[in-house]
Write a structure and sequence with these properties.
The protein is α/β, with parallel strands linked by helices. Helix content is about 40%, strand content about 20%. It is built from eight helices and twelve strands. The strands form three sheets. A five-stranded parallel β-sheet has the order 2-1-3-4-5, sandwiched between helices. Helix 2 runs parallel beside helix 3, helix 6 packs across helix 7 and helix 6 packs across helix 8.
């Protein structure tokens, strides 16, 4: 399997997976004009085969695919290796969007959508996937956790954590600001780079992160809920509350 180092901008490989040829053609055209190398797939098995042949830097993945849906495609790709995923969902299907985030999608765009907005989202996710600049690459350590921003690697008690791009960014942000409570709106702005959006995105990612860094995710000690505010990274706290 050929894998490429993720990067933003010209030359990054994007796999577009959508069974609607019109949507796929429009998205492909906009991404191509933005300088991306674009592969297309019309269903899940084709997407997995194309990813195996040329590992993408990012996947634009329709949730509703024939036979194998986007959730299963995302699971199987993540089983082969880390890859950023932007999921396309139908407007109003909040449960489906949350499911997409639960299986590890880094972002989602609701249909109908602006192709220009999608291109911006692709660039944003790819920029987040790049290693941190040297000035910001010092190791972050707390509560048995070590985060290396330059290598985009995180460990807990020496064991490497399998984090998505957003989970990694969220953990690194928390470690840089221990003891401070952040509203979900602040986290969305600082970690996602969005001034507005569906705040359930933050809630789901916090829940997923807790599942990987907490000894007991049902009673979190590290990423604490601050009722009426948001969340706080508190490695020295006692038994947590949800």
């Amino acid at each position: 399997m050929e894998q490429r180092t993720p990067g933003a901008g010209a030359g990054s490989r994007v796999l577009v997976v959508d069974d609607d040829p019109t949507v796929a053609e429009i998205v492909t055209g906009y991404l191509d004009r933005a300088g991306y190398v674009v592969d297309r797939a019309g269903d899940g098995p084709d997407a997995l085969a194309r990813a195996a042949a040329h590992w993408p830097d990012l996947v634009v993945l329709d949730l509703m695919l024939p036979g194998m849906d986007g959730l299963e495609v995302c699971r199987r790709m993540r089983g082969r290796g880390p890859v950023p995923v932007i999921m396309l969902t139908a407007r109003g299907d909040e449960d489906d969007r949350i499911l997409g985030l639960e299986v590890g999608a880094d972002d989602y765009v609701t249909k109908p959508f602006s192709p220009r907005e999608l291109v911006l989202r692709v660039g944003s996710v790819l920029r987040r996937a790049r290693p941190a600049p040297a000035a910001a690459s010092g190791l972050l350590r707390a509560a048995g956790l070590t985060v290396d921003p330059a290598a985009r690697r995180a460990t807990k008690n020496g064991v490497e954590l399998a984090l998505t791009i957003r989970e990694f960014d969220l953990l690194a942000f928390f470690l840089r600001h221990p003891g401070r409570a952040f509203a979900r709106e602040e986290l969305m702005r600082e970690v996602w780079g969005w001034d507005f959006g569906d705040l359930s995105t933050v809630t789901v990612h916090v829940r997923r992160l807790r599942g990987k860094v907490e000894d007991d995710p049902a009673r979190p000690r590290i990423v604490r809920t601050v009722w009426g505010v948001g969340y706080r990274f508190d490695p020295a706290a006692g038994p947590g509350e949800e």
